[in-house]
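Escalation from tier 1.

The customer reports that the assembly of two entities below gives different structure tokens on two consecutive runs. Tier 1 could not reproduce it. I'm attaching the input and our single run for tier 2 to review.
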Amino acid sequence: MTASVALKKEDDNYSARLVFSGNWLFEEHPDHTKQIIEELSAADLKKITLNGKEIEQWDSLLVAFLVRVLSVCKEKSIQYELLNFPQGVDSLIDLAFAVPQHVDTGKVVYSQSFLTYLGNVALHSWEATKTAYFFARQAYASVVRLLMRRAVVRKVDILSEIQKAGANAFPIVSLICFLVGLILAFVGSIQLKMFGAQIYVSSLVAIAVTRVMGAIMGGVIMAGRTGASYAATLGSMQVNEEIDALKTMGISPFDFLVLPRVLALSLMMPLLTVYADLMGIMGGAFVGVFMLDLSPEDYFRMTMKALSMKNIIIGIIHGSVYGVIIALCGCYQGINCGRNASAVGYATTAAVVNSIVWMTVATAFLTFLFSVSGV
Amino acid sequence: MKQPFLEIKNLKVAYGENVIMRDVNFTVNQEDVFIIMGGSGCGKSTLLTVLTGLKKPDQGTEVFAGHPFWGGGATKADRDACMRKAGILYQSGALWSSMTLAENIALPLEQYTNLMPDEIQDIVALKLDLVGLGGFQNYYPAEISGGMKKRAGLARALALDPQIVFFDEPSAGLDPISSKNLDDLILQIKESLHTTIVMVTHELPSIFAIGTNSIYLDARTKTVIAQGDPHELLKNPPNETLQHFLTRGEK
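Tier 1 run:
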């Protein structure tokens, strides 16, 4: 029998009966409980009797509804009496009312004017800038301590980070940079073919990849792979109080955790950039040889002609700067992570986004610098 | 005579070559407060992961409310169906940090019942009231204390009115008063909802306050070396290891 409840008013108009029947179960919930609560709230009652004699089965649905009804009764000072309810219901109701409701029910949502909002954004930005400055200063001090051989850093950590940031990144760097070289060659060949100059695809790919594309693609891959990993690892250590444990032992987390990562990525990024350049050229060669019918000898001869040490070094400089940026962004977000699981997710996302934003800013700055200096 | 709710036979659990426990046999009856006790590293929590379907035993069977759970041709779908009758309170509370307390409790109700949103909100409010957290609906787990997290975790474990609730060291990290209050709460809820309780703990005050039946897992022999009402075991300990444990090594 489906759950049912009926509000029956007595002749005196000041008292009523609330009669429950049927199976008060999650799967057979009555559809008129809201209506009963509204009727009860609107009625001018002094006394109500709740009768559960005809209840067959019950679960929390019944108790939740009863608590709601009794709350209305308490609010409206209606005297109530519970009759014939199944064993256990009374004690659950007592338990539910045992602790008074917490008064501040949740967050206070402040409405704020646009100016207040702007002010808050400015204040938060200022705080974030101060934290970033403090972080950069600590990282610098850490490097100085390393040079003075006073930093507490384990050689095995540096080597392990070098392996993770370097050798372990080879497969993904190979694939992405090969494909980028291939795409560049494809796109370039569309125009160059029209003039019968498809041989210059090799020069296009060689110059583009070595000067900046290899470094940028390597940087984006490392931001998503290694930078995110730094933020997640250090963030989890923050959650597990491992960073607090280092601090209380007098060991600087910058020396112990940040330094090996910054060193590893700064050392590996130039090498990865050179490797990315090579893979990009291979990708271009694949299109040149197999799609544009160029001979491998011609392709590599033109590539060697187009390659210049200046472009390669510019690419390596880009890569080195990206390495420092990615490592610092990843470690910064990890070290300043909150203390719960969602904060780790936020830190990881922020590490990747910040790395890419600052890489773009650095690229613009370096491009401007090289242009002005005529390089 | 109480009906058996969980029946464990010849259970063997290992991580690779490392055997954690073997020849484990016990029965949890309906409305028991069944304590799984033992020293650190004896495999109590591992046993709980087996009982709740998270880890497959290497050998043995588990029957859950009359249905095969491990062995006897039980599938994952069978275990999932059984676990809908169960609630679990993890050691840390294991609340989902990106959700408010109300959302944490509402999720299983939204998932497994066809209740209307306002009915779900009423039940969420009731569950929080029962654990003494009425009014904390909109708080995030990060904004409440460790003890409150445990109580909120209990409210979530009770969301679907489970027939059995598993507790993994509920008193760990709580002060003695909070620990006693939590024990009282567990008892009150058990008596009102007629829930069966399985609790992993090595907190002696909790064991004697609420336990009606128990097993003792021994790390050395890797099996159950004592079984029964904890008070009876204290009076007549069947072996020295258990006597040592129950008297904190003082006798």
